[in-house]
């Protein structure tokens, strides 16, 4: 044994080949923490000191090669200052350069995932062999940074600037066949043949059949592009990527600039350019928030996994109500491999649900994600029915009928009589109390909420709602089923609107108050879209549907009258009275026409403008800052109240629910991280000023005021 540490071992065989193996103890995956990098320094020094080594194999003993750097260390490191960041990067560059410059050929055997720093380790060796199920990628731009351990230098020189820009700016995980086609790896083999193939490649390089020195010269020299080719490659890419990334995500464009600046340089100078580009991004608020988002997502997934361990598996599901929502739920279940019964009382509703599922499967086939045979097989996982005859073997039923407590109560009572005693019943209600609905069932411990967001196939969040009598087993089974469907479940406690809608409607309340005081709804939309929302509040209300918004608003007003009840009619109610339901009937705050793809396209509607102008009680001008404050403060305060009331367990879960459920701008990190960014004291001062004029919707809680006085934050 040449070296043995907690994460890395280096062994030498009888043929003078050293094998460096990553196997981080007490962890399920390999990560490049600062401690692991320290070990890698020591391991490489030991290899250097060993006499007679003729080749190096780099491999992993875990199911994945290396998933990347240890992201839990990022906030602390990035806050330490630019010089500390540059020092770390230069140190790692030196380490990887040492591997690249070893006086014998080197090969990496890539199994599972090789992402971020793991990919950059592999790029430092001369050759790479990949298991056919493995994936390779540099996802750093998704964290608001760029590949900083040589990825922006080595990858373009291996696969060309165009291809490297696509990988790096997109932050994609790339399958083995694509990596081979691009030239990022030298061979792809069945996973069980990986080590044998890597050793064969190393032996061929040792015999001189493969010129490893030429490969190094290619990776360490300038990019082979003349000035015109560089301009075409980089300037075209910048325009395209800027359009895709948008103004709030600077990392993809900065990565292209780094590659461009380093294109004419040798390795060391290009790496210094990369380091400075990384350090610049690492100190931004966007990076801080996106790293925080990743950590929050990991916490949510960990909690979901803990529930899943306790759950009885859902092998057969059912959905009641076969409209667009029911069809979407059936599609998602069937697509992920869980057979599902789709029941309705009308043939036409069944056909509508099947049509929705067929349409979604057809889109997958058109994009090449499914073959025709796979599409037919998955569609066969949906079994339509008009009766409860086959419900005796169902593990979980999702009730997705009309949003009416009487109808839901009747349906739940019927289905409970048709299923087994352990079957979980879950209501896809968006507003009705789970505790109230539980009054209709004999086994309330088996009943909970399972709130999907529309469209089901696109929206990642599922709220799992625990009623007063809901048992742990029901929650665990529902969380496990949601995860099996490819969704992110977050468990919340019962209250009007649960978490997401309870937080969203104060945002709409702030919007209605703005319109009452003379704000132009089109301008409010533009300001909030510039702030980072995917659509402004007027457009969002049109998409939600005015009937849905009015009903949910009434539930909120009844549940929280002090904050959410208003005298007179608000803007959605005025629209509803005029039968302007939004996209559902082609007119709301905007009018809607079909675009070339048959999708609704909003256009200005003078009738709507006049209608809103007629409900205004004042004619005030608002700055962009005023609009943002009046919209965001109620939403953020309601998120705080949900946390204080125990509706949601942690700041991380609250923020992730808003990002996944209503499109809260990810680069801002969530409502509670947004308060932290403003400063709790500054936010409380802003809210108190607005509350004096606008009332309780804007009033901070006593606990938030105490946090402001004591300098507390939601996130450490």
Automatic annotation (TrEMBL):
One GO biological process term: fatty acid beta-oxidation
EC number: 4.2.1.17
Record keywords: Fatty acid metabolism, Isomerase, Lipid degradation, Lipid metabolism, Lyase, Multifunctional enzyme, NAD, Oxidoreductase
Stretches assigned to the 3-hydroxyacyl-CoA dehydrogenase NAD binding domain: 317-495
Gene Ontology CC terms: fatty acid beta-oxidation multienzyme complex
Enzyme class: lyase
GO molecular function annotations of the record: 3-hydroxybutyryl-CoA epimerase activity; delta(3)-delta(2)-enoyl-CoA isomerase activity; enoyl-CoA hydratase activity; long-chain (3S)-3-hydroxyacyl-CoA dehydrogenase (NAD+) activity; NAD+ binding
NCBIfam families named among the record's database cross-references: FadB, PRK11730.1
Entry protein name: enoyl-CoA hydratase
Lineage: Bacteria, Pseudomonadati, Pseudomonadota, Gammaproteobacteria, Oceanospirillales
């Amino acid at each position: 044994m040449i070296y043995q540490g907690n994460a890395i071992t280096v062994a030498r065989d009888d043929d003078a080949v050293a094998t460096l193996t990553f196997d981080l103890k007490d962890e399920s995956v390999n990560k490049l923490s600062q401690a692991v990098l320290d070990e890698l320094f020591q391991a490489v020094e030991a290899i250097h000191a060993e006499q007679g080594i003729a080749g190096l194999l780099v491999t992993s003993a875990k199911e994945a090669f290396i998933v990347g750097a240890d992201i839990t260390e990022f906030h602390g490191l990035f806050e330490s200052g630019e010089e500390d960041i540059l020092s770390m990067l230069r140190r790692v560059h030196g380490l990887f350069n040492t591997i690249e410059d070893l006086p014998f050929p080197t090969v990496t055997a890539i199994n599972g995932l090789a992402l971020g720093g793991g990919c950059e380790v592999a790029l430092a060796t001369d050759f790479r062999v990949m298991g056919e199920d493995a994936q390779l990628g540099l996802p750093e731009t998704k964290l608001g940074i760029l590949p900083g351990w040589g990825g922006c230098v080595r990858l373009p020189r291996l696969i060309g600037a165009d291809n490297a820009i696509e990988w790096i700016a997109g932050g994609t995980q790339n399958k083995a066949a694509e990596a081979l086609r691009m030239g990022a790896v030298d061979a792809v083999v069945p996973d069980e043949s990986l080590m044998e193939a890597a050793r064969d490649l190393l032996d061929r390089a040792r015999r001189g059949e493969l010129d490893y020195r030429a490969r190094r010269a290619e990776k360490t020299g300038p990019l082979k592009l003349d000035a015109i080719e560089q301009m075409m490659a980089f300037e075209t890419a910048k325009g395209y990527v800027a359009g895709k990334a948008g103004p709030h995500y600077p990392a993809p464009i900065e990565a292209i600039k780094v590659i461009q600046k380093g294109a004419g340089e040798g390795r060391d100078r290009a790496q210094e350019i990369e380091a400075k580009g990384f350090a610049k991004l690492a100190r931004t608020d966007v990076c801080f928030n996106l790293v925080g988002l990743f950590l929050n997502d990991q916490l949510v997934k960990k909690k979901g996994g803990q529930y899943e361990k306790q759950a009885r598996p859902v092998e057969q599901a059912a959905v009641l109500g076969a409209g667009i929502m029911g069809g979407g739920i059936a599609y998602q279940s069937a697509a992920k491999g869980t057979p599902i019964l789709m029941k309705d009382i009308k043939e036409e509703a069944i056909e509508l649900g099947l049509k929705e599922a067929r349409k979604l499967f057809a889109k997958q086939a058109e994009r090449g994600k499914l073959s025709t045979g796979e599409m037919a097989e998955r569609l066969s996982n949906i079994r339509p029915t008009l009766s409860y005859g086959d419900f005796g073997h169902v593990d979980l039923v999702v009730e997705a009928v009309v949003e009416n407590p009487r109808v839901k109560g009747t349906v739940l009572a019927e289905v409970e009589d048709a299923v087994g005693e352990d079957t979980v019943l879950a209501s896809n209600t968006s507003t009705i109390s789970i505790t109230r609905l539980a009054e209709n069932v004999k086994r309330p411990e088996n009943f909970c909420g399972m709130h999907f967001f529309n469209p089901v196939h696109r929206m990642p969040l599922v709220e799992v709602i625990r009623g007063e009598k809901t048992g742990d087993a029901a929650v665990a089974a529902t969380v496990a089923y949601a995860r099996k469907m490819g969704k992110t479940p977050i468990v919340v406690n019962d209250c009007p609107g649960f978490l997401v809608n309870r937080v969203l409607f104060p945002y709409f309340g702030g919007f209605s108050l703005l319109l009452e005081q003379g704000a132009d709804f089109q301008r409010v939309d533009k300001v909030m879209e510039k702030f980072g929302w995917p659509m402004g509040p007027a457009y969002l209300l049109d998409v939600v549907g005015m009937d849905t918004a009015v009903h949910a608003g009434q539930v909120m007003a009844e549940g929280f009258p002090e904050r959410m009840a208003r005298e007179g009619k608000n803007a959605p109610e005025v629209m509803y009275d005029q039968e302007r339901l939004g996209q559902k009937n082609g007119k709301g705050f905007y009018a809607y026409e079909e675009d070339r793809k048959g999708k609704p396209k909003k256009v200005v509607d003078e009738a709507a403008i006049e209608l809103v102008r007629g409900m205004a009680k004042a004619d005030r001008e608002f700055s962009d800052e005023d609009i943002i404050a009046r919209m965001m403060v109620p939403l953020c305060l309601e998120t705080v109240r949900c946390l204080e009331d125990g509706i949601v367990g942690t700041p991380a879960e609250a923020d992730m629910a808003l990002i996944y459920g209503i499109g809260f701008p990810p680069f801002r990190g969530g409502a509670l991280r947004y308060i932290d960014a403003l400063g709790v004291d500054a936010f409380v001062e802003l809210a108190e000023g607005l509350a004096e004029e606008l009332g309780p919707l804007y009033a901070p809680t006593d606990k938030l005021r105490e946090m402001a006085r004591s300098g507390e934050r939601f996130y450490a």
